[in-house]
Amino acid sequence: MADMWVNMGPQHPFNHGLWNLRVLMDGETIKYAEPILGYLHRGWEKSMENRTYPQIIPLSDRLCYGSSMSWSHLYCMTMEELFDVEVPERAEYIRVIVLELQRIVSHLLWLMAFGVDLGNLTVMLYVIREREMFLDLLQSITGARMTYNYPRIGGVRNDLPPDFERDCIRAMDYFQGKIDDYEKLCDGSKIFRIRTEGLGVVKPADAINLGLTGPNLRASSVDVDIRRDDPYSVYEEFDFDVCTHDACDTYARYRVRMDEMRVSCDIIRQALEKIPDGPVRVKVPRNAPKKSVVARVEDPRGEGMMYVVGDGTDKPYRLSVRSPVFVYVSAANHMLKGHKIADVPSVMGSIDMCLGETDR
Amino acid sequence: MAEITACSGNLTGLEIADALSKRFAEGIKINSASPKRIFSQVDKEIFLELCKFLKNDLLFDHASLVSGVDRIDRIQAVFHITSYINNCCLIEIVVDLDHEEPEIDSITPLWEGANYHERETYDMMGIVFKGHPDMRRIFLPEDTRFYPQRKDFKLKEVP
Amino acid sequence: MNDNPNAVAMNSKDFMKWSTEVIDDVLRATQAKKVLDKLMLPFWNWSQRNSMYPLHFGLACCALEMAASSGPRWDAERLGIIYRSSPRQCDVLLLNGWISKKVRPALRRLYEQMPAPKWVIAMGECSISGGPWYDCYNVVQGADTFLPVDIYIPGCPPRPEALIDGFLKLQQKIKAEAKGPFLED
Amino acid sequence: MELYTFIEGIVVWLVSIVQYILNVIGLHGLSDWLGGADIIRLLTYLGQALIVFLVGFIICLTMIWQERKTLGRLMDRRGTRIGPLGYAQQLADGFKTFLKEIIVPERAWTSGYNWALIILIASSVILVGIIPLSDGWFLSNTPAGLLLLFAVFSLAPFAILIGGWASNNKYTLIGGMRSAAQLISYEVPLLLSTVGVILLAGSLSFGDIVAAQDKIWFVIPQIIGFIVFMIAMNAEVERIPFDLPEAEAELVEGWGTEYGGLRFGLIMFAEYLRGYAGAAIAAILFLGGWNGPFLPPELWLLIKVFIIFFVFIWVRGSFPRVRTDQILNLGWKWLMPLAIINLIIAVAFKMLGWF
After folding, report:
1. Burial (CB count <10 Å: 0-12, 13-18, 19+), residue B94
2. How far A2 CA sits from the closest chain D CA (Å)?
3. Domain count, chain C
4. Are residues C139 and C102 in the same domain?
5. pLDDT tens digits along D316-351
6. 136-155 in C: which are within 8 Å (CB) of D?
7. pLDDT tens string B26-35
8. Contact predicate A99/A69, CB 8 Å
9. Which of B90, B20, B14, B104 is nearest to B57 (CA)?
10. pTM of this structure
């Protein structure tokens, strides 16, 4: 068969979000893959220059709808650095709890999409079931299911609800058993293994050079975690593992995320034990000083980063976002070349796409 | 066991800042330095040389973010580059460019991860990166006439 | 065609045309279409109501709520809401998210690709009116600027209950429209 | 009671009424012609075909219902709930498609696009006619029934290939090619695994094969063959994990992407008809067909068919989809040798005189 270009998108079941993967195929083998972005571009950074600082918090939720909390937290963290305010310790602990809950939710969302990509709907529905449980927890704190609008510049909006600790511990206990179930359903299946092992291999040096971060970088056998190496919030108070895997392939990315969910449960338990009493929010000035700051966090998808320039008014002069997925997309050709078209969902699904933050 | 481990190097931000100002006495201005962060302002001429030095000698291996700021009279290209090995240190490099024809050397040949960020900065801000393999618009259609992130492009006013 | 059509002497195309016309004439003259419509309408309507296939297509945030609504807790399949990936096999175009100018032609094309009794649901603020992106240069201010929208589900994002409620509203709308098997008459 | 004699009775009764009326009017010649043996036989066949097809239709609807409900339960949902126990969902889905607009893609090859579908539907419906529900309930009981059945069964890849190509869409083209490769390579182990049964039974006729399983089901001596057959049949009827021609994640809806409206409904229907045929062959060849105590034989076969179909659904609920090259590897490198081993076992049994 002669070479042909196939447009996988914008409407295609494999792209979770809205993008177009143009694939040059020789038969079913991929010779070249070219991502086309911009289908969800809305000029986020530009329109933020029209909003005041507190107005941006709910909109930063909509950056990545898979992990809204971590983006609004990143925004608030950047602003705290800009305004130079100290966050109360209780607020930091609450933030860690909700961030790790959000990480679990985000990884569950990924697993759900991955199940669909591989053609196993059962995984998706089981995962939705457990995801609802965590959404309920987050809902009891924030009142919303997905876009929380919870962190504030200088703290969080409200304190934890009563009995939250009990509910949370109970959910953790239940969920850790469920992770074993997922592993039985996925790892235990020979077909799952042959569909994931040895695909989309990114060697460690390549991974760093291509700009992969977060779980995908750790799956490429690089031991990096911004929570540990460049600690923010109160992460240095906790003792947690950084999950890595040596296989560098799709299966490794799956394994790292599954392990990270366990680690997140662990961090939440520690945080619930150590959480101090006190206020959860401080007042911040309205106008920002004239300076530029940068902050970065370990988003569930990788390294999230914001760069803000303040100009003395109540609106940011420039707000620039580093989205991890944006960089992963550029690695699509590296990962897909030489594979079959049937591996596209498996490989691209494994890097956890979220187009809201990619296109901005 | 992982093949590459972060923070296994021995340089901190302060030492890196020292090394930089020793190597590039003229063109670089270190605004502030701490063990994890370096903020610097660099001349356009030595920029590529500095990046090569960062990559090869100081083991900066990850281009975190490339963006631009429109300062009305000039355009700044802002680079954030991380060294995982050396203490996870983040360096911010600000380069002033001409407002009419902003042009700067591309760092994509050094760090592949900067590829799409440079395309995005071109798309949004109009900064041309010389030596970039594929300098096209990424979000907006090819025939767009404006650069939305520039200050002379105004969003529509809503009461 | 001859003045006096003779079925034997016609070629196949002419015969088809002639016979269709004759049958049409008979149906019209005897009011058979209206009678048939009236008799079978409840049944067809019931089947249209209870089998709404939305397009498996996620734009933005609300797509996750769409996924959640088919999960075990809400289980939209109870109501015959089954997601299909090809627009040719769908009845409902579910717009869940903001619509950028780059995706607008693709959406219009998806709509054109769907076969005729088709409905559009705008889910979430963004596709209703542009929502939080009211001043953005690249966002279409509402899906109804280029598609005929039937049901609006407000929320940012709407909860899965709201989505299912939207589908129930669409059922009411289909019931009220009440088109029979001879749709155009 | 045999279906033929039953229908014949009804036809003779109806014809006698018509004859009476004709005689009263005075059309004695017509009445005699109507009473002739040939006409009676023709009418009986038509009636029989109608009944068999209706029963096949109902079985098919029940299988769709079974799949939806079982899959729902496996996934911790309730599944469809339209109508009593959700049974009316299929009817709604089916009749809705009658109302849909008919779209032929503008640059498709129209006659290929239409004929592919006709071949697929026709071959699937013929399958229902060939499969006997008991030694009385059949349309044709040819001595080489099994051979005929597999011949009709293997027409589908032809239709799918043409349909995929004629739709003028890259996804349908890839889907069609995949389907051709997959179905042709699974045809071989499928047939080889049945050869063991044919040897043991010593016949190609369904009646003889079932009669040979009077004492012991062939699943026991032919266990390898049964496993090979089930896997190959799963691939032949294109269900997860072998549903590559319509792999949703990579090929949208596979070869059927451009078929919408009524055509889509018919494709779904044909797929389940083939699923029914696959399960029925497995039940007849390996699980003793309609043998069983107490209940009528037709019911026994249907029970076995639904149990086998439940296994198909269970497999669908638990596995991801495999890849094209892996499926071909599995077919040629594993199932083929296993089928041959199974054949050797069957020959050994036969030579030892145990069957």
Report:
1. middle
2. 12
3. 2
4. yes
5. 888 888 888 888 888 888 888 888 898 888 888 888
6. none
7. 778 888 888 8
8. yes
9. B20
10. 0.89
